[in-house]
Amino acid sequence: MSNKTVTMDELLESSELSRLKPGDVVEGKIISIKKNEAWIDLGAQGTGLVLRREMSRSQRLAEGDTVSVSVVDPELEDGNVLLSMRRAVKDKGWDELQKAFEDEEVFEVTPYDANRGGLLVEHEGIRGFLPVSQLSAGNYPRVSGNDKDEILQKLNQLAGKPIRVRVIDVGRKENKLIFSEKEAVKDELQDRFATMKEGDIAKGVVTGVIDFGAFVNVDGIEGLIHISEISWERVEDPKDYVKVGQEIEAKIISIDKDRLSLSLKQMQEDPWLTEVKKFKKGDSVEGKITRITPFGAFVQLSPAVEALVHVSEMSNEEGVDPEKIFQLNEKKTFKVLDIDTDGRKIALSLKGADEASSTDKKKS
Q: By residue range, what is the domain housing residue 163?
């Protein structure tokens, strides 16, 4: 039998009464909780105090709850232990988030605020950031002219709403935590893409209307209707045809990586093919000037049919300036030179119409 003498320090080290050190994380039960403090029963290690500023924001606390706490000061003047819930939650949170990053785990977070760059998030006691660029098609703030105030307004609407995310960058030393909604839904979107093909009819909701078209959320996938695919008519402003929040059906005309190209006009028969039958080569027609360019002027002959009078067909004189001959919305009479049905083109002549008019007058 050993006669080795055991010191009091050794007894303390080997028992539950081992001395607490700053930074130790221990468990305790809440004895009482008040507005500015909570008292924690640490068992054989005494009683601890948590001040309000050190309580966890993400936890709902009640008497009798078992909580993890971090030791700030192991011995106050009154013999109690000064504790922090927030530090304990943070230490545990970093470990959980590092694991979630490595496992590519998808989970829900609820942003508590927003700025122009994205959403502010607190998860597992750690504050992180969800950049605008990492939002999915359904939540991305599509606005005209990149209006920062309007972007912030749309982001504020996401605060308080659960969002599924994946951690894409985590660093305890740098205190860095970045979330991505796009990465969280990526696999699901690829599965949905696999069920789609060109020519399919897609149902979606318009999420943004801009100068060059409209963005559409198709079951979480971003779709774009280019301005040229909104209507068979000439579209000056897409907002005259679609509105944010409007439910639409559109034809898928191409699938490119993570975006759909959609067409509204191809949901209807091309009226050009019907209306062009009214015109024949050699006809005199009246049309309204819709655009003037250095090489010619565009003329609207009917709601769906637009034709071109080339600068060489404006006058017999050389060096003609189209802007001196035409004014926007002005109506003039032209002669039909050619109709290309396959190319959807009609060529007109102003000088041909003038010559024909002069000939008619001489005959009379």
A: 104-185
